[in-house]
Each structure stands twice: as structure tokens, then as C-alpha cells.
From TrEMBL:
SUPFAM superfamilies: EF-hand. It comes from the Eukaryota. The keyword Calcium applies. The keyword Ribonucleoprotein does not apply. This is Reticulocalbin 2. It holds the Pfam family EF-hand_5. Keywords: Calcium, Metal-binding. Residues 6-41, 95-130, 142-171 form the EF-hand domain. Belongs to the CREC family. SMART domains: EFh. One of its GO terms (cellular component) is endoplasmic reticulum. GO terms for molecular function: calcium ion binding. It comes from Molossus molossus.
Length: 226
């Protein structure tokens, strides 16, 4: 069972909670009421003096932009499919361009349409007294050079950027599932039975592949054995 399945299930449950008048769509006002208990409307062109309030204004405006982009038919509210696109734009094809634009806005500091290694690392600055970069920086540099920068030009173009901001969750899930089988498959049939799961329930309940045990309560789980 993929992470995408659980993301979709969660969004469907949220849709019911956000649709206050049960008309089959979620309006921008309903979204605000569910999130903040009131309707919030910021002026796009008027920054706030308080740094914390300004940070919230920026986040709220980003949410509104994503909401409008998800609203394909431009009607008053979002349908279930559009709400899923709003909550998980990385999982919906027509939101791909928006995901890239949002990532560039956040990371492309010089506005050249690419993300350099320095921009990728963010605000990191090497300690002048240190002989080498910390381990996490070395790991991030390796990811940039070997995982994302496919054409080795020292920067991420929009498609390379997409592979960074939208990781392949399916591959991650498969690796974790194989790890569970290696650890828990007592009879070596490359499947996990209910008895094997119960025998190793602590490991099962702390695994990302099982959504930290939530799959035990999912009617689809036992139809799609690990």
C-alpha cells in the first residue's frame, strides 16, 4: 500500500470536516474557518510591521495561491478532487508547474530560474574555525551532486528541482517493506502473515511502510500483503 493511498484517504476525511455546509465543495472561507476559526483576508501588497505577523501573512497568501491554482473549474469552492490537489499538489499532474514555481520562489534567491548548490544548502555558512563541513552538509552536497544534478552543470533546472521537492515515496516505501520482510518473515515465504506481524508488532508499529501501524486498521491492508 503506497503513501499516496494514505495521503488521499486523509484528504478525503479532511474534506468532510472542511465542507461546513455539506454542499460537496470547500470554499476559501470554509478553509479559513476550519483552520483559524475565522475568515482571514490579507492585502497582498501591504507588508505587516510585526515580523511574526508578516511571516504568517506570507504563508497565508501562499495557501490562497495554491487554493486558487487547485480550483481548476474556477467555481466558488474546491471539489474533492481539487481539494486533494490543494492538500497534496505533488501528487497531482496539473499542479506540477505550481510545485516547481513555489520551490523556485523559496530557493532561487538570485532569480535565474535555477537552484545552485549554495541556494540548495540555504543559509549555511562554514564556521571559519572548522577544518571541514559538518557531516549533514557533506550528505546534502552528495545528494545534490549525485541524486539531483543529473546533467552535472552545478545547478538544478526545474525538472531536476522536481526530483528534490517531490521525492519518490514509492521507492522509499518499497525499501522499508523489504526491510520488514527480512526482519519478520519467519517461514521465509517472502510474505508477512498475521501471526508474523503479531510476533514482531513493535517493529511493525514503528515502520513508515505501515504508516506507523495505521494499516492494521485499514480494510485494504490484508488484501495487499507486504
Amino acid at each position: 500500500m503506497s503513501f499516496k493511498h494514505y495521503a488521499m484517504q486523509e484528504a478525503k476525511q479532511q474534506f468532510i470536516e472542511y465542507d461546513k455546509n455539506s454542499d460537496g465543495s470547500v470554499s476559501w472561507d470554509e478553509y479559513n474557518i476550519q483552520m483559524y476559526d475565522r475568515v482571514i483576508d490579507f492585502d497582498e501588497n501591504t507588508p505587516l510591521d510585526d515580523a511574526e505577523e508578516e511571516s504568517f501573512r506570507q504563508l497565508h497568501l501562499k495557501d490562497k495561491k495554491r487554493f486558487e491554482k487547485a480550483n481548476q473549474d474556477s467555481l466558488h469552492g474546491l471539489s474533492l478532487e481539487e481539494f486533494i490537489a490543494f492538500e497534496h499538489p505533488e501528487e497531482v499532474d496539473y499542479m506540477t508547474e505550481f510545485v516547481i514555481e513555489e520551490a523556485l520562489e523559496e530557493h532561487d534567491k538570485n532569480g535565474d530560474g535555477f537552484v545552485s548548490l549554495e541556494e540548495f544548502l540555504g543559509d549555511y555558512r562554514r564556521d571559519p574555525a572548522a577544518n571541514e563541513d559538518p557531516e549533514w552538509i557533506l550528505v546534502e552536497k552528495d545528494r545534490f551532486l549525485n541524486d539531483y544534478d543529473k546533467d552535472a552543470d552545478g545547478r538544478l533546472d526545474p525538472q531536476e528541482l522536481l526530483s528534490w521537492v517531490v521525492p519518490n515515496n514509492q521507492g522509499i516505501a518499497q525499501e522499508e517493506a523489504l526491510h520488514l520482510i527480512d526482519e519478520m518473515d519467519l517461514n521465509s515465504d517472502r510474505k508477512l502473515s498475521e501471526a508474523e506481524i503479531l510476533e514482531n508488532q513493535d517493529l511493525f508499529l514503528t515502520s513508515e511502510a505501515t504508516d506507523y501501524g495505521r494499516q492494521l486498521h485499514d480494510e485494504y491492508f490484508y488484501h495487499d500483503e507486504l
